[in-house]
Design brief:
By secondary structure, the chain is an all-alpha fold. It has one domain. The chain is built from 13 helices and no strands.
């Protein structure tokens, strides 16, 4: 039986772009919300989750495009820093040694990126099966909330001294944070939330943990986009390119606003509000789709 071609309205793409832009870097899982919102609304929105055209989920491809817009916005927001880090990478390659803090940091970012890159390639099919399952996503979002609460309680009771300088993160800390980031392959587990939580568990301050989480998110999202987005130009899918471009533009604007907010927020605040939100929405979704 031929699968009905997915039609995406500009209204749907704009709303999805807003959702992606504000939830990508908030520790509440943008991918999880991209599954739950259409499932809760139902109707043509729910068809997003189940439609497959040319062996692909056009909606998933659209979400990847919106993620790319978010990552490019991240790159632009921290552009001065990334220019220094990219220069440091090529300098260390040329000299075959690591001689300053910027060179050390870029290699720690690469180290933290390797685990999720490898696991994402190995298990992309298995993880992709969860993308259309709001029941599982609700459970993972609830688990996301538990993780955020747990790490805040642990940090308050166990960690007396904090590392506030991102440049001083050790190789072991970077690797642990990178391995933790792999959990974000499951829709409902926030990439930013899990990487920041791992940083807090390893003794980083909220500011340093969020800073490193911002940095390691960029190459992962861009890498995944490069692998998947060419499929948007498949003749059976390319008709949604217009809405995807508009949604990506909206996503970029909302991502910029969310970064500006979160950079200030984590200087003096914690993960608790996001944890409570994840627990409530995750529990309601788990109940609704059980």
């Amino acid at each position: 039986m031929k699968v009905k071609s997915l039609e995406v309205s500009y209204f749907q793409s704009i709303l999805t772009g807003i959702l992606q832009g504000f939830s990508e870097l908030f520790p509440i899982s943008s991918l999880g919300h991209s599954v739950l919102v259409p499932a809760w609304i139902g109707g043509s929105w729910e068809e997003f989750l189940t439609n497959e055209t040319s062996g692909e989920s056009p909606y998933l491809l659209m979400i990847i495009a919106l993620h790319l817009a978010s990552s490019l916005t991240l790159l632009w927001f921290f552009r001065d820093r990334w220019l220094v880090l990219i220069k440091a990478f090529f300098t260390s390659m040329k000299n075959r040694r690591v001689s300053n803090a910027s060179e050390q940091l870029i290699w720690k970012i690469i180290l933290a990126t390797i685990p999720v890159g490898v696991l994402g390639v190995l298990f992309q099919d298995q993880v992709g099966e969860l993308f259309s399952d709001p029941y599982a996503v609700g459970a993972f979002l609830f688990l996301n909330g538990l993780l955020l609460v747990t790490i805040e309680v642990y940090k308050k009771s166990r960690i007396a001294r904090e590392l506030a300088d991102t440049e001083k993160i050790g190789n072991g800390q970077a690797l642990v944070i990178g391995i933790a980031q792999s959990a974000a392959l499951f829709p409902g587990i926030s990439r930013f939330g899990i990487t920041m939580s791992a940083g807090l568990a390893r003794g980083l301050s909220h500011s340093a943990a969020s800073d490193f989480a911002f940095l390691i998110a960029t190459p992962v999202i861009i890498g995944a986009s490069i692998l998947k987005l060419p499929k948007l130009f498949d003749p059976e899918i390319s008709h949604i390119l217009g809405p995807v471009l508009i949604g990506s533009f909206v996503s970029a604007i909302c991502t910029y606003l969310s970064i500006a907010f979160l950079v200030r927020w984590f200087k003096t605040h914690t993960l608790y509000p996001f944890a409570i939100y994840s627990l409530i929405i995750g529990a309601l979704s788990f109940w609704r789709f059980s």
